[in-house]
Sequence to fold (226 residues):
Amino acid sequence: MTIRPLPRNTFREQVVAELRNAIINGTYAPGAPLVELELAEKFGVSRGPIREAMRQLIEEGLVVTVPYLGTRVMSLTLDGLEDLFSVRAEMEVFANRLIWPKRDPELLAELRARHAQLTRTLKDADMGAQLAAEIELHELAYAASGNKLLMSFWNVLKGQMQLYWATYHRAHGRTGPAPTIHDRYVDLMHGDDFAAVEAEIRAHLLQGCATMEDFLRYQHAVVGIS
Fold:
């Protein structure tokens, strides 16, 4: 990926977006060092906007500061994966419980529209568009819940989710999830059984976590990635 020099307006926002995309698409792999001076030269900006962008990506969990090693892309670990999915499962169930009584025709139409958009992107080979569409589908419950704190927690988790997904998909020659993986959730959200919705959410996330665990164990054992 070629990182383009940026115009001098909106430095911070553009640097954040470009650097986030570079991390998720693998230009900067998990665990890779991020050096302010090198990034400033690549983006064609001063170190100030780079430093501000790094702070935001640290808040999002995509970037970490490691003592004696400096700033790096978040590493993918089994412990981190388990923490991420266990927290996300409780958040996602809670978000959907909050919107359950709010399911008016407008909300359900938006759910169907986002699901249809994800399905359309899966026909292309654009991983970035597919990851964005999948995030948009899951994000609806958080946004519609009206709970600002819950939404802020989701904003921290979603970048990390995309990094795990993208790394897994690239390793398996895929660009996105299975085409029908969200169909049952969308159907159940049109029904009258929240217990079934909760069970589907937990099963969906448990399967995703187990798949990623197998992938990370393979990397650790065979490829030697720590």
